[in-house]
Amino acid sequence: MNCIIVDDEPLAREGLAGYVRDTDFLRLKASCENPLQLIELLNAEQADLVFLDIHMPKMSGIDFLKVTTRPPLVIIVTAFPDYALDGFRFNVLDYLLKPITFEHFFKAASRAREYQQLVGNNSQPSIQKAAADYFFIKCANRYEKIFFNDILYIEALQNYVSIFTSRGKYIALLLMKTLEENLDSKSFIRVHKSYIVSIDKIESIENNELKIKSYKIPVSRNYREQVMERVVKNKLWLK
Q1: 99: cis peptide before it, omega within 30°?
Q2: What is the pTM of this model?
Q3: Structural domains of the chain ordered from first start
Q4: Residues 169, 157: contact at Cβ < 8 Å?
């Protein structure tokens, strides 16, 4: 796979270049220090994969994803886990947190190769199908990986959110609006100004309350009709 490294830090570029040289199925076509240079390179070079930093001068990695309609496969490399949801929104393949170990780099690169083999070299990749199925949040001094399929429901707490998963509860400094914008609307639904739930995890609905495992979550009057329409109506069996 032909790849390009984009990072404004020379040491970071050299570190990734070393990992590329040690990976037999990758070929480094070029490296650059900002997305403006990347755009010029993509006009001149055929690239299958881009390792893209977020914080860079002139244009950020997220800005590049916003303005580029058909980029190659993208793996984000950054020291800032707060952008994981943005990465999911723009359908990046994977998300690597600095400092990056070779093990994590190789796993992400292998995933890119597997996806390329799946879609075939003659077709334009649909990056959305390859989007990462997880994101990171910062809990105190830890970075926690959250899988979308593990989420039961989310509760808003002013500027914080509590994410209840099958593995436990996680509290993060994150706006509910940010989560709602980045969650798949086919899998999650707002049931209250303070609650978003996973549709597949709903076990029952009674009056203005729904049940997920041992949790009881309120359904507000403003959202009840929408909840019943999407969750119950098309699946309701009657005599």
Answers
A1: yes
A2: 0.60
A3: 2-130 (3.40.50.2300), 138-235 (2.40.50.1020)
A4: no
